[in-house]
Sequence to fold (222 residues):
Amino acid sequence: MTLKLGDTAPDFEAQTTQGTIRFHDWLGGSWGVLFSHPKDFTPVCTTELGYMARIKPEFDRRDVKIIGLSVDPVGDHSRWADDIRETQGTAPNYPIIGDADFKVSKLYDMLPASTSGDPSKRTPADNQTVRNVFVIGPDKKLKLILVYPMTTGRNFDEVVRVIDSLQLTAKHRVATPANWKPGEDVIIAGSVSDEEAKKIYPKGWKAPRPYLRIVPQPDVTD
Fold:
């Protein structure tokens, strides 16, 4: 079955560049981002892993743990880290899963269940579907699934923006409009009646249409 938003993120045990982990235990009560790669020593992925290392403080500030995955052994990841440091200026400062047995890739529906064999004999094109981003909530549910082609580098600034929206809307009964950024106006969720909204927003709201009720962003510390 294909994974869907709201499904529980599959748990697993795996070797990583920072030791063996049990995924759900490793996440604990934090949010998480799992982003996957079809092969070590590939050009686009090299830039992605370096960029994620540079912006890791942004994820830390939001209590989000990040973890990479590549369909190669952990030993290869360590050698690749040297290339990433030299070409991108920052080596990965988060764990990267070694998925040489394809277990996690298959568990997350990124490779067919029938996939087997020696990962070193597979090309990036063989693993091209392993280019996903999964955002997981503290409840271990999947909150976002993105799938990218091989030739398009991922926009991790957008992933941060989405997490800001997810964390805000998980705490307050609001939705965020197109291209929303933190601090901008939000929309009262459709599940909130006008009577409820009057109690939550006693100063009222702007409503260009009855179903489009716009209010300032709630204080994220409330």
About this structure: The first helix runs from residue 23 to 27.
